[in-house]
Amino acid sequence: MQETEKDKERYKNDEYVSELAYYLGARTIIVFCIS
């Protein structure tokens, strides 16, 4: 049961990290294009 909770949390973290990376990447590209 504890391991399942840990896996759930890890999946949540991975999702957040990938979303953050996508957002930062998109922002960087936009700024680069505007400059």
Count of alpha and pi helical runs: 1
From the alpha-carbon coordinates, what is the Rg to the nearest angstrom? 15 Å
Give the overall pLDDT as a whole number: 89
**Can you tell me the residue ranges where pLDDT is under 50 for at least 5 consecutive residues?**
none
The largest pleated sheet is described as: none
Provide tags for this entry.
single chain; about 35 residues; mainly alpha; 1 helix; about 95% helix
Which secondary structure elements does this structure contain, and how are they paired or packed?
Elements: H1 2-34
Question: Can you summarize this structure?
Answer:
This protein is mainly alpha-helical and 35 residues long. It has one helix at 2-34. The longest helix is centred in the middle third of the chain and has 33 residues, at 2-34.
Description of the molecule:
With 35 residues, the protein is an all-alpha fold. It has one domain (10-35). The protein has one helix at 2-34. The protein is rod-shaped and about 50 Å long.
